[in-house]
Each structure stands twice: as structure tokens, then as C-alpha cells.
Automatic annotation (TrEMBL):
<keyword id="KW-0472">Membrane</keyword>
<feature type="transmembrane region" description="Helical">
    <location>
        <begin position="47"/>
        <end position="75"/>
    </location>
</feature>
<keyword id="KW-0812">Transmembrane</keyword>
<dbReference type="Pfam" id="PF04403">
    <property type="entry name" value="PqiA"/>
</dbReference>
<feature type="transmembrane region" description="Helical">
    <location>
        <begin position="123"/>
        <end position="142"/>
    </location>
</feature>
<dbReference type="InterPro" id="IPR051800">
    <property type="entry name" value="PqiA-PqiB_transport"/>
</dbReference>
<dbReference type="InterPro" id="IPR005219">
    <property type="entry name" value="PqiA-like_proteobact"/>
</dbReference>
<feature type="transmembrane region" description="Helical">
    <location>
        <begin position="335"/>
        <end position="354"/>
    </location>
</feature>
<dbReference type="GO" id="GO:0005886">
    <property type="term" value="C:plasma membrane"/>
</dbReference>
<protein>
    <submittedName>
        <fullName>Paraquat-inducible protein A</fullName>
    </submittedName>
</protein>
<feature type="transmembrane region" description="Helical">
    <location>
        <begin position="258"/>
        <end position="283"/>
    </location>
</feature>
<feature type="transmembrane region" description="Helical">
    <location>
        <begin position="211"/>
        <end position="230"/>
    </location>
</feature>
<comment type="similarity">
    <text>Belongs to the PqiA family.</text>
</comment>
<dbReference type="InterPro" id="IPR007498">
    <property type="entry name" value="PqiA-like"/>
</dbReference>
<feature type="transmembrane region" description="Helical">
    <location>
        <begin position="96"/>
        <end position="117"/>
    </location>
</feature>
<keyword id="KW-0997">Cell inner membrane</keyword>
<keyword id="KW-1003">Cell membrane</keyword>
Length: 376
């Protein structure tokens, strides 16, 4: 409760004061946090603008208000209305909050322009850092087990549940949101008794959906790299730069650490995710228990690192808003920004639609052999 309230106050401060200002030869510009998104609309990049605004401010704010609502009810020992639906949506909001990624993006963009112009950090910048930190602490200190226990108690497992035997063979499924074991109906589907989440023995058409999203991401990855992600106009001369071009530029400037950050976030992570998820989809059908643990770890890693690729999109958002001194020095977004943002979003969705339980399904031939009692 304290952390969530603190984070909300920090966010309120972050949106009401100047964020960063820059000046070059007497001409300057000062921006507020929300302008990092709204400036993109001026350049017909409204989809990217909406993504930026949602991930850095709107969704975190919704999350924090939800946490305060829940905790207020729990502290009074009488949960407020809609507590269960709100608690259920927290876990779905979590991966889409990217305040910490935005800070990395903001720092990278400041380093990029440090040589060209004078930069001054506003109160809002520090408030936003505090907000990102408090948001991180809030998500870390929220205990889902305790939350669901306090909201709805701990119902017993369905009668006849046997331990040490796979749930799918017993017609059971664990809830990914609250952890409760539920009995599925004849179609392998039910709603969780405690939180109301939709449960399936295995996510329907998991592999097909993941393949489709991966294909979409692979297609979008081409324009994301071939088109310029932004165009810098300096003294009337326009120089477009692609993602790789930006990395090369940083190396030429001597900023090795930043170049590595951008290269890892914009090239290694998205390509690695595409390769890793495709491999998991291919292997899901012929996974055995020995390899399943390693493959599950690989899946968790791809799920965890996915959001960090947004760094480059945030760099563009920040620079486009800040660097507006006409022909003297200005930066405009390129078509690759939208393409790259959609690569990040579709690979994140692909990781969500992939059902890691498929990795633990022993092949049918093997399963019948064990059921008949013969040793493997
Ligand atoms: Zn549940």
C-alpha cells in the first residue's frame, strides 16, 4: 500500500513538471513527460505514441490504483467490490509496464545528444526515476499467494486428486493466476473456482497461434531494419539512420557501452526470441522430461527479456519530442519505429500464447508404455 501510493505520487509529479530541456546555440526546447508520446502524433506515428503512453504511464497507473484498491479492502478486512476481477487482471498488466525500460531509453538518448547540445534534467526526470523504482518494489512485494488466500481463502484440491501424476491425465489443471488446482470439464476447459480465470488443459491452438505471431514478427523485422528509424536534420542536412546505423554511429562516437546496450536490445533480443520460440514450437511435440527443464528455462528467459527490446522505440520517442530546433537541429521518426514496435509486441504475444506445459507432455507411445507398467 505504502509503495503503491508512493509510486502514484511520484508519477503525478513526473507528469506535472518539465522533464528535460536542451539548447543549442541559444535555441532550445523544454518537454514534459507526456510530450514523448504526443510529439509522435504530429509525425503520424499515433500507434507508436499510444504504445509509449500506455506502457510508461497509463498501464502502470491503472496497476497502482488497482493495488491500492485491493490493499485498502484487505486492510479493512472487507474486500471492496470487484476485488477478484481486479486481482486477476494484475498479472495480465504486469508484462506491459515498461517504466524501467523507458529510463534506459531516456539515458541512451541523452548520451546520444550530449555532444550536440546542452542538456538539463528537470524535476520530472528524477520523479520518474523514483516512480520506476517504486513501481518495481511494488510488483516485487506483491505476494500473489497471500493475496488470493486473503481474498478467497484456500479451497481444497478436487476429490480424487493424486499427487506425483501429471494433472492432464487426471483431467486437472493448475490456475496460472492464483495457483489453485481445478477439475476440468469434458472439453478440457473450466473457470477457476477461486479467481474466475479461464483454464484449459492446454491453451487451445497454442502452437498455431505462436507460429502465426512469430511469422508476423519475422515479416515486420525486415522493414524495421531496412527503413530508417529516425532522421536527424543538422544545419539543414538530413541524415536518416537505421537501427544498425545507429549502433555504428554510437561506436564511431566512442560510446561503446551504449552501442552494446542498443545492439543487444534491438538485434540480439528480438532475433534471439524469434529463434528460441520457433525452436521451442518445433521441439514441443518431441520433448522428454530430461530436456523439458532446460527448455522451460529458455522459455522463461524469452518471456522475461522480451520487453527490453522497446529501448530503441523509447529512444526515438524521447529524441523526437526533445530535439526540435528546426533546420538547426531536429529529429523526426522513421517508418521503422512502428515496424520495430510491432516486432516487440508480436514476439511478446507469441511468448504468451505458447503453452510451456506442452514441453512436459511425454510422447503418447511413451505414456502408454508407462501406464502399462513396463519400465522406461
Ligand atoms: Zn485461479
Amino acid at each position: 500500500m505504502a509503495l503503491a501510493l508512493g509510486a502514484l505520487i511520484a508519477l503525478a509529479l513526473a507528469v506535472s513538471f518539465p522533464f528535460v530541456s536542451f539548447s543549442v546555440s541559444g535555441i532550445g526546447n523544454r518537454i514534459e513527460l507526456t510530450q514523448t508520446a504526443t510529439s509522435l502524433i504530429d509525425f503520424d506515428q499515433s500507434l507508436v505514441a499510444i504504445t509509449v503512453l500506455l506502457t510508461i504511464a497509463v498501464l502502470p497507473a491503472v496497476y497502482l490504483v488497482a493495488v491500492v484498491w485491493l490493499q485498502f479492502g484487505l486492510l479493512r478486512q472487507a474486500p471492496l467490490p470487484a476485488s477478484r476481477s481486479i486481482a486477476r487482471s494484475l498479472s495480465h498488466l504486469h508484462p506491459w509496464m515498461m517504466a524501467d525500460v523507458f529510463i534506459v531509453g531516456a539515458l541512451v538518448s541523452l548520451i546520444k545528444i550530449a555532444g550536440m547540445a546542452e542538456i538539463e534534467l528537470g524535476i520530472s526526470f528524477w520523479a520518474f526515476c523514483a516512480f520506476a523504482l517504486l513501481l518495481l518494489f511494488t510488483t516485487q512485494s506483491l505476494d500473489a499467494d497471500w493475496l488470493w488466500f486473503s481474498l478467497a481463502g484456500e479451497p481444497l484440491a478436487p476429490p480424487g486428486t493424486r499427487t506425483g501424476e501429471p494433472a492432464s491425465r487426471q483431467g486437472l489443471a493448475g490456475c496460472a493466476t492464483c495457483g489453485l488446482v481445478n477439475r476440468l470439464d469434458d472439453h478440457g476447459h473450466c473457470r477457476c473456482r477461486r479467481c474466475g480465470e479461464n483454464l484449459h488443459a492446454r491453451l487451445p491452438h497454442s502452437l498455431q497461434r505462436t507460429w502465426a505471431l512469430l511469422a508476423a514478427a519475422a515479416v515486420m523485422y525486415l522493414p524495421a531494419n531496412l527503413y530508417p528509424i529516425m532522421t536527424t536534420t543538422s544545419l539543414g542536412r538530413a541524415t536518416p539512420s537505421t537501427i544498425i546505423g545507429g549502433v555504428v554511429e554510437l561506436i564511431q562516437m566512442g560510446s561503446w557501452p551504449v552501442a552494446i546496450v542498443i545492439f543487444v536490445a534491438s538485434v540480439i533480443v528480438p532475433v534471439g526470441k524469434l529463434v528460441a520460440l520457433s525452436w521451442l514450437c518445433l521441439m514441443a511435440k518431441r520433448s522428454d522430461e530430461l530436456k523439458a527443464a532446460t527448455r522451460t528455462r529458455l522459455y522463461r528467459l524469452t518471456e522475461f527479456i522480451g520487453r527490453w527490446s522497446m529501448v530503441d522505440v523509447f529512444v526515438v520517442a524521447m529524441l523526437v519530442a526533445l530535439i526540435r530546433a528546426g533546420a538547426l537541429l531536429s529529429i523526426t521518426p522513421g517508418p521503422a519505429a512502428l515496424a520495430f514496435a510491432s516486432v516487440v509486441v508480436s514476439t511478446m504475444l507469441a511468448a504468451m500464447t505458447f503453452d510451456p506445459r506442452l514441453l512436459w507432455d511425454t510422447p503418447p507411445a511413451e505414456a502408454t508404455r508407462t501406464a502399462q507398467g513396463r519400465p522406461r
